């Protein structure tokens, strides 16, 4: 089983991978306990925490930046300050102020400042994601990583995550709004995916509201050849997610630079986690390689009757 996938992975820079189906590990390679950088998968973690806070009436998505007193180093215009927290959550703020912790791709795709009004245009924009973290801390009074530990990691039995040193704030010269990086092991990340696969439920307890799981992973914005985008989750659109792979309808993923992803495939009752040791300079698995490995996985799963 998975013989083609096992032959392919050593030809690329995969360091760990885990496939869970029907609640059981059906494929694994690498050290599943090593805590790798998560990069942009952090955004899906904050989305989950936001859902909990919204259900507790501690986070109002209709609040505007002006109402919250949120600004930045270069100064936000009165139009930009009308963006609400929902706009940030969906990457539709129209605020193209410089941001911290951006990749070269993020900088390339960012429109000119003031080109779009809030809510008008989707752009994968770290300003939105980082400012949302600032707003979350302001409204809840909680540390993001401690809250993740208490509200999600412990309730679902994560084995390796420690709020320190596995979570930290990363400020920078571009903006007042810091990034909030994470490290997670492959097996802990698979538990996070399984939590969403189970509609936010874990051993009879509601960890994340099921309604939030449904709305946050809906295809709200068209994301071109990357599919669609929800509440800081990438969502498959018409099978489109990665090149040269056709994913089942309803699939969605958290993705991080260098080849990290946590993919949830509800129609197959499956979670797929892929990791790369991006602490090593220039080590990555690109999106074309990811597409190939996922298509091999899906083809071999179907052929072997695992699904």
Give a concise summary.
With 307 residues, this protein is an alpha+beta fold. The chain is built from eleven helices and twelve strands.
Q: Which descriptors would you attach to this protein?
A:
alpha+beta, globular, 307 residues, 11 helices, Beta-lactamase, 33% helix
Fold blueprint:
Blueprint: H1 3-8, E1 16-21, E2 24-30, E3 35-37, H2 42-55, H3 65-68, H4 85-89, H5 104-109, H6 126-140, H7 144-153, H8 163-166, E4 183-185, H9 186-197, E5 201-202, E6 205-206, H10 210-216, E7 221-222, E8 228-229, E9 234-235, E10 252-256, E11 260-265, E12 270-275, H11 287-304
Helix pairs in contact: 2-6, 2-7
Task: Describe the 3D structure.
The chain has 307 residues and is of the alpha+beta class. Helix content is 33%, strand content 15%. Strand 1 and strand 2 (24-30) form a beta hairpin.
Instruction: Fill in the CATH topology.
Output: Beta-lactamase
- CATH architecture assignment: 3-Layer(aba) Sandwich
What characteristic shape results from the CA principal axes? globular
Distance between the ends: 12 Å
